[in-house]
Amino acid sequence: MPTTPEHNERIAKMTFASVYPLYLAKVERKGRTKEELHQVITWLTGFDDTTLFQLMDEKVTFKTFFERAQLNPKAQLITGTICGYKIEEIENALTQQVRYLDKLVDELAKGKKLDKILR
């Protein structure tokens, strides 16, 4: 299922700060920790905790968030379906990067071991 330009634009304009509490609540509900969530985000983006909190304070959009990130070269190994989209088939680079993050958070919440999540 291809993404639409409207869908891609909506994702680009969302702020990381608005989604982060949802990620955190999801993993904590399933018995995982904030530290594990940060480990996953750091693996994907290269951001340390200080930078993550600065980005949230700045209320950066996902577009800016991923422009500043140093995406892990192994990120392309993240495959599967998230929100009805096959990650490897998403053509818009930013939407694909956001879905990478969504997939990692999903795997963490489902109890997958960190060494498997971090490929």
Please give the structural blueprint.
Layout: H1 5-13, H2 16-29, H3 34-45, H4 49-58, H5 62-68, E1 81-82, E2 85-86, H6 93-109, H7 114-117
Antiparallel strand pairs: 1-2
Helix pairs in contact: 2-6, 3-6
Protein name: DUF2200 domain-containing protein
InterPro entries: SP1917_dom_sf, UCP033199
Pfam families: DUF2200
- Tally of domains: 1
Outline the low-pLDDT stretches.
none
Strand order of the largest sheet: 1-2
The string of secondary-structure elements, in order, is: HHHHHEEHH
Structural class: mainly alpha
Helix content: 55-70%
Strand content: under 5%
Q: For the report, how would you describe the main beta sheet?
A: 2 strands, antiparallel
Q: Say how many strands there are.
A: 2
Radius of gyration (Å):
13 Å
Shape from CA axes? globular
The CATH architecture is Orthogonal Bundle
CATH superfamily: uncharacterized protein sp1917 domain
What do the pLDDT scores average to?
A: 96
Number of helices: 7
Short description:
This protein is mainly α and 119 residues long.
